[in-house]
Amino acid sequence: MVVGSVLQASVGFGIALFVVPLLALLNPAFIPGPMIFAALFLAAIMAFRGWSAIDPKKLGLAGAGLFVGTAMGALGLMVIAADQWPRLFAVLILLAVALSISGIHIPVTGRNLVAAGVISGVMGTISGIHGPPMALLYQREIGNIVRATLAVFFVMAYAIALIALGMIGHFGKRELLLGFTLAPGVVAGYIIAKFTTSLLDRGYWLRIAILTVASLSAIALILRS
Question: Quick one: which of 103, 24, 49, 89 has its CA closest to 219?
Answer without folding.
Answer: 89
